[in-house]
Design a protein that fits this description.
The complex is a heterodimer of chains A (219) and B (207). Chain A is built from eight helices and six strands. With 219 residues, chain A is α+β, with helices and mostly antiparallel strands. In chain A, helix 1 packs parallel to helix 4. Chain B has 207 residues and is mostly helical. In chain B, the strands form two sheets. A two-stranded parallel ribbon of chain B has the order 1-4. Chain B has a two-stranded parallel sheet with strand order 2-3. The chains are: A alpha+beta (219), B mainly alpha (207). The interface between A and B is large, with 95 and 83 residues.
């Protein structure tokens, strides 16, 4: 979707302001939200792509003003309710009003922590040979799906060069739409900045995206 | 919940957000989905164990051991996972090397994808709208915000992390560090230089 989350190339957000000696969490609740997000991830009630999509679905004024981990919190509450793991009246009451659903994997305990503090694998067997090889010139499609996509606006409809192949990965556009993993080849596609930003762009700048095969076409 | 009794002392100082988050945690615990101690442990790991010191060890080894450097550039997940002091890291990690000709910088314009296995959780600036919007269009100006000025002839290479691949920058080893141990070198390696938003410290800065 063409949402405010797709920020590459926008102007007006000001300077980048690094915070010296920044703490990992600025408030206790941020750590709790992070930890809950990791923990409930193991129930596989939704995918990482769905979780990104639900953040993108926040209204633009919330997206642009809520603290980072508040967005995660709002996403968690929405998905927990949608998947029937908790109920809206429980959120209002601040306590459980009925027993939990039985989960096939059981409760998330200390023994499970190791599972969630290392990233998983998103690679999958390739359904077909790769259409492109390193060095090929490719054009990104000019697409504007109203659902989740990982092809950023600034890189649509532009010609680049395939620099790397990463094997086939879960295709986020399908996974977030509830259409399964639908593995697709993943490429690093490199663009000259002048292709993306016009003749005035830095001639010594190159930008790459990670592009799934359905985003690409032959030049 | 016994583990939270001490929090009652905070009384009215609790923010609205703290209360909202606590309510959800209470519900998840009462419904039997999660154990409070497991959440405590996750927070503790990110606060004390999973951070940029891991990446610094990786880079220091790459600077010291040419065969490790080669393995890292060929398959970073495999190379890092084979380091005894680090252990398993997630798949799809990619290390990209700075040279006198090319400076690499990592961003996620769509959300906040970051190599957490080796750098911990991302700093606020990495998740900021300013960084996400500008890094792909005017990275030299972004670098200036960090006090970094590179020669105009140096190519800037921006990697937008739009998939599950996770990029780690291998900075150039600073001059006048011949004979340094990996532990000494690691002290020069900042989080920001492994994202490409900074450069390693100079030997004079840690002397």
């Amino acid at each position: 979707m063409d949402g405010v989350h797709d920020m590459g190339g926008m102007d007006g957000f000001g300077k980048v302001e690094p915070e010296p000696n920044e703490p990992v969490f600025h408030h206790r609740w941020e750590g709790r939200v992070l930890a809950m997000s990791r923990a409930i991830g193991v129930f596989r009630a939704w995918t990482i792509d769905t979780s990104r999509y639900v953040v993108e679905l926040l209204s633009p004024n919330v997206y642009l003003t809520a603290p980072y981990y508040e967005k995660w919190f709002l996403r968690n509450v929405r998905l927990l309710i949608e998947r029937g793991l908790i109920d809206a009246d429980e959120v209002a009451a601040g306590r459980a009003l009925r027993p939990g659903k039985s989960l096939t994997r059981g409760r998330f305990t200390l023994a499970d922590v190791e599972l969630v503090t290392r990233r998983g694998s998103y690679g999958r067997p390739a359904p077909a040979p790769a259409r492109y090889k390193v060095g090929d010139r490719v054009r990104t499609k000019n697409i504007h799906p109203t659902t989740h996509t990982r092809l950023p606006r600034y890189a649509r409809g532009h010609v680049g060069v395939v620099e790397r192949l990463h094997g086939a990965h879960i295709f986020p556009d399908s996974a977030a739409a509830g259409k399964g993993e639908d593995p697709q080849w993943l490429y690093t596609v490199r663009f000259d900045a002048q292709e993306l930003w016009g003749a005035d762009a830095d001639p010594k700048l190159k930008v790459s995206i990670e592009a799934f095969e359905p985003y690409l076409e032959h030049v | 919940m016994d583990a939270h009794d001490h929090d009652h002392n905070e009384g009215s100082n609790l923010s609205e957000m703290e209360l909202r988050v606590r309510a959800i945690e209470t519900i998840l615990v009462e419904k039997g989905y999660i154990e409070t101690a497991a959440l405590d442990r996750i927070v503790e790991l990110y606060e004390t164990k999973i951070g940029p010191h891991i990446g610094a060890q990786v880079i220091a080894k790459a600077w010291s051991d040419p065969s490790f450097r080669q393995s890292l550039l060929e398959d970073a997940s495999k190379a890092v996972g084979a380091l005894a002091q680090v252990g398993r890291v997630g798949d799809h990690m990619v290390a990209v090397e700075n040279t006198p000709q090319v400076h690499n910088i990592i961003v996620c314009t769509l959300c906040s994808c970051y190599p957490t296995d080796v750098l911990g959780l991302p700093p606020t600036w990495y998740k900021s709208f300013a960084y996400r919007s500008r890094a792909v269009k005017e990275p030299r100006a972004v670098l200036a915000d960090f006090g970094v000025a590179l020669p105009a002839e140096t190519e800037i290479r921006v990697w937008d992390s739009t998939a599950e691949t996770r990029y780690l920058v291998v900075p150039m080893r600073p001059a006048e560090t011949e004979g340094w141990s990996e532990a000494q070198l690691a002290a020069l390696i900042t989080r920001d230089c492994m994202i490409g938003a900074g450069l390693p410290k100079k030997p004079s800065e840690v002397a």
